[in-house]
Amino acid sequence: MDNSWEPKILAFLCNWCSYAGADLAGTSRIQYPPNIRVIRVPCSGRINPLFILKALQGGVDGVLVSGCHPGDCHYLTGNYVGRRKSATLKRFLEYLGLEEGRVQFSWVSAAEGGKFSQVVGEVVQDIKKLGPIKRFVKK
Amino acid sequence: MNLKLDKKDLKPFLQSLIDEADLFAPVQLAEGVLVFKKIDRPDEVDLSSSNTQKPAKEVFSPQSETMFRYEKAGKQHQVTSTEEVERKRVILGVRPCDIQAVSLLDEVFLGKEYTDSYYLNNRNATTMIGMACGHPLSTCFCSSTGGGPFLRKGSDLFFIDLGESFLVELLTEKGMTFQKSNFFKEANTEEISLAKAIEEKALKKTDTSVPVEGIEKRLDLMVESSFWDRVHEKCIGCRVCTYLCPTCHCFDIMDEALTHGGQRVRNWDSCLSSLYSQETSGHNPRPTNRERTRQRIMHKFNYFPKNFGRIACVGCGRCILYCPVQFDIRQAINWTSAKRLKLQRGGRSTNP
Amino acid sequence: MIQKKIREKAKELLEKKMVDLIIGFGEWTLPLRTTPIFVRNPKEVDHLIWNSFCENNLSTYLHKFSHFKVGIVVKGCDARSITALSLEKRFKPDQLYLIGVPCQRMVDRRRVKKAVKGEILRASEQGDQIIVEGEDFKTALKREDFLYSSCQVCTHRTPTLANVLVGDPVEEIPMTETHPDIKEFEKKSPEERWKYFEKESSRCILCFACREACPMCYCEECFVDSSNPKWIEKSLSPSDNEFYHIVRAYHQTGRCSGCGACERACPMEIRLTYLTQKLNQNVKELFNFETGIDAETLPPLSTYETEDRQEFIK
Amino acid sequence: MKNPYHPIPMIVKKASVETTDRMLRTLQLSFLNEEDAKAFRFIPGQFCELSIFGKGEAPLGIASSPTENGSLKFTINKAGVVTTALHHIEEGTEVGMRGPLGNGYPIDIFQGKNVLVIGGGFAFTTLRSLIAFFLHPENRNKVKDITVIYGARMPGLLLYKEELKEWEKRSDIKLVVTVDWGDKDWKGKVGLVPNVLEELAPSSENTYAVICGPPIMIKFTFPKLMALQFPDERIYTSLERRMKCGIGKCGRCNIGHIYVCNDGPVFNYAQLKKLPKDY
Hints:
heterotetramer, A: alpha/beta, Rossmann fold, four-stranded parallel sheet, 4 strands, globular, D: alpha/beta, Elongation Factor Tu (Ef-tu), domain 3, 2 domains, 25% helix
């Protein structure tokens, strides 16, 4: 594979935890790979599966959805509802034959700058292994 | 002079067509699912089935057709048209119903004040090789709608399947250019009379009982009839009949944008979809399935004859065969007529 | 027997004016098929029939008759669709009267057609056989061999929550043991699986018959019709076709009764039930939920448990 | 042969917001190519398909008069994707235009007659074209009296306010502007269009009525015209339907066998009566 290829990853971060976590990583000077492009959403429960699919169709190599830990949701239950959507969507996409790891999920709180950096690092590693997205992309 | 093409020569013949032109012919996408497609290799062609799912109109008015591409240049745009057809085309294996349907599309796309350039170019570039329908289905009623399984009108060449060979008739100037073709041999009298026999048998088989005669006048009186309250009931508005109909020609124009440019495309559309006539304000002149079903039937049997003097149905039977709920257009026509004619299989239903 | 009971019940409901109309199946012009019919007059109940060709899910029509009291002939799957729709508050409680038929499972007309040479002009049922006749042939086929794939794996053939059951309940198979073709499919590599999905959806002509045939697809505006944001382009491109089929199926998560109406409606014979069946299996495994079994449990994506599985979340 | 689906390139010369609710914006377009400008001939009542590349096309009535050379004016109601984009477009940007499409008002039939123009809301655009055409010195003697009744919901929603003021000063046109609800600065008439018509009671003798407005206004104005003894053939109106191609090919805008885009959009009431009530 071409070594110069760097994956493009879209990250949906919830406003209250993960986005703040990313912010903390930044202000604490914790390094993480520059492959992610962030879209801030009110809550991980706000994620419509259409967003993830549209991103993949548009050619991003991976999608990360990150929200508050269970029990910490600013809207009390948004991340619980989101969790069910995530679980079913992930399973379904993998069943269809989209590679495991293209779409990933995490809980990152506002205090977990370190965890955010670690999660992004792992996701980038996973997707580098998978290579550029070929299936489903609109040519 | 009558010619024939031996089936063992079919593949080389097809190859010669591919070398000369873009060849379109029926291709099997899955077991029993056929469409007209551009052929790359002769063995893709499948002439065994009686008709394709998607009609041959697709070659002339494709389901998705790019009208032009544009490229952004500052505050202006560079527009590149896609109307030219670069290579000659041959379409092979078209059934008479589909050919008759093309002549109806001609009326729409070529007629009146405006000529549709895309359609015209597709039409002009194409040589039409018709294929006689030796085994019409029970749902075929082309003989009722002014056509027939052996209708030659509209074909440049006409093939009749004789089992071991095809009898070939050259019908137009475009067709005559094939006269010198190495693949065609002279047919003997036996083969000619065999073709006649097949023709007679097929003619007997197609349904001539569907009462389309005078339907325009009958429907004139039925616009506000309670007839429509019942007719639409079983229709789920799924559009299959309109997409698979060889005479339906409605389309939608859309822009597809990319970062620095994009294209304007047109896609088939269907009067059975609620969005089809819905205005931006939310007002819909055809708000329910009742009005939309009426539009479908009235357009084919009343509006179209008013504009062009012919009904817009060729009796191919696709809408009957593929309708998920068995809406039978023959029965809808029957019901407009005082005398309800019997079909081969007398059923009972509260709707057509 | 069942047919007679359906007619009797329909007659009673219409005569007592308990319903405005009965939606059921009638005989019509094509062999191997029936057609949905709408009976309003008690004298017309003899049009109602029952056989192994009653393949439509009639609950689709309930959206059309939302202002009427409707009596409806339902198979197991249709009844479950109705329960699922009731959970989504599509009907008033007393609006429907379900005439439940324990289902013998329906015959796949396409498979029958492909099994014989020549056009089938007449078809009938005799015991466990399907007799098909054409111009120059007459063949008996074993009914069991020609069932719809969605019927083969059906787990609830006896309608749950019907107002009346015509016929004796049939023995059910539990869900865990079924879906052999899903098991087969899952053995393939992701690449092969995607290839298969690609091939199937490439035939799609975006006629949306699968959507319209589905009782659960009743959105005022389907995502494909939205112009702002525009999720998919409607010109046929492989990726947009796949997008449509992924979302159409996924939107059925926890809502699909597995009736197979989508696949039966498809003019291009695209396999669709292998998608929705898997979704059903997923919600069973993850949330122990089966669509339309009871009228209280909320569909899985409308609710949550704090203890839901989350091992996939980093 | 010219491809009827290819847009003519136009440049947005001037853009201005018409109404206080900012939902109506007038674009003045000029031709990018001289030969297109020369070839373009239209009559009031015709429409064009304006397009923004990447967004799509929308049919819009021409608001300028053929007598105003060199440019075209459109007043656009912000409703869907394309019209919203047309609201955001900057001056100097290229847009596409296909047209003129449709039949337009029957100028020749109006010759030597009185013309009564009744308009409501933003449907006034093509009526403005018609009025401006007849007010042009070259054309003013083609028709006799011109009477205009124009209504809007509120004073702020009136179109072409400056022009209305000018017309009011002229003696060769009788203009009545009315609003449903006045405000503290409004000195003009307050009242619904049908009522104003009744009050004004113009003679139907030798007169053609042209009426264009929201369906509810049309519904109540027609009976008033009938009461004034306007025969069906002398009442003209312009219809609106969802359109795509504008040239009678794509379906969808038909009412019976008539295609609004190509056979219309202007019809007289006698013609409309013969059509199915499909609008």
